[in-house]
Amino acid sequence: MWLKNILAVLCVSLLAGAAAAAELKLACVSMERLFDEYHRTTTFNEGLKARAATLEARREKLALEVRARQRDLETLEAEARDPSLSAEGRDKIRAVIADYARRNGFTLVLDSSGKTLNGVEAVVYSDDALDLTETILAILNRGKAKE
């Protein structure tokens, strides 16, 4: 408000001086209005609004995809925690191991990936020749094409 008063006093002073010097001509413009109403500014602003709308639509589409993927992930996590599904898999693996061990004369098969309660490996060392993992995987995956 005080800036407008100062400008008014300055304009009056200049006008009084202008009366003294007839050649001096003063004018005022609203740069804010000129800038806001200049056709290039309005065209640029319209372009920005159109781009913002496009980006907003894309953001909404991506947000929907993220929510769908989140639901898929939650479903998979729930299935992974489902004891019936994991128990079924464990039972199948154990049955194949037991059958292979009986047919090949093994008296004990240990899980070399298992850990004890204090986090130490249950099998500290074993010769690679004793590892049946690849053999059992081949048996388990043999039926993959049929399923």
Task: Provide an overview of this structure.
With 147 residues, the chain is mainly alpha-helical. It folds into 2 domains: 30-81; 83-142, no CATH class. Helix content is 68%, strand content 0%. The chain contains 5 helices and no strands. The chain has helices at residues 2-20, 31-37, 39-81, 83-103, 133-142. The chain is rod-shaped. The N and C termini lie far apart (82 Å).
Helix/strand order, N-terminal first: HHHHH
Question: Average pLDDT, to the nearest integer?
Answer: 83
Poorly predicted parts: none
Assembly level: single chain
**Strand count:** 0
- The separation of the N and C termini measures 82 Å
The overall number of domains is: 2
Shape: rod-shaped
Largest sheet geometry: none
Helix content: 55-70%
**Beta-strand percentage?**
under 5%
**Rg over CA atoms:** 41 Å
Number of helices: 5
Structural class: mainly alpha
Task: Outline the secondary-structure elements.
Elements: H1 2-20, H2 31-37, H3 39-81, H4 83-103, H5 133-142
